[in-house]
Description:
Largest sheet: none
Structural class: mainly alpha
CATH architecture: Up-down Bundle
Number of domains: 1
CATH class: Mainly Alpha
Amino acid sequence: MHQAKPLPGAARPLTDGERDRxxxxxxxxxxxxxxxxxxxxxxxxxxxxxxPTPLSPARWLAHVHDLEGRPxxxxxxxxxxxxxxxxxxxxxxxxxxxxxxxxxxxFDLAPAAPxxxxxxxEVVLPWVAGFSAAMDLFPAALTRIGEDGALEALALLYRxxxxxxxxxxxxxxxxxxxxxxxxxxEEAVEDLVRGTLLLADVTRPQRRRTKQ
Length: 212
């Protein structure tokens, strides 16, 4: 996993143990629930933060334990799960609002065969898929991005999809075709952060302080 130093004064980040606990809680949710996995959850939360109008926690939390938003079966407690998710959301929100580096929850994959290079897109795709899921569920950000011509920033993230999955996004595909191939997992992770922060300039612009 790729990590950087925590932000000074940042919201209390999850420890490795707490992140493992969150993953266990997601994995333990009963059928028929289909929760986001840990990487997809992180991308999902980043896209939630990018919404032009902040969403109520109840709206976005409903899709954490089940992407379709189905309620948990009777007797299933979500309190511990949601508490950890809210902390990660707060950490991402602070970093994105300050336009500071954050650590995407991205995990290296073992090569398919000895000596074979890892495909950077395969490593970051779960994160991007979670990001895209939130954008589809809450389309206000995508609308703002399209209106402001910020598809170049979105291309940094969506280039990791199979082009067939973007067959109705001709303009976006054309922009993706202009990008240099990603040479490493580190570069792909950097693009996740860079793309997210560039999109924040459009969907969550910072207010300029006026001199007194």
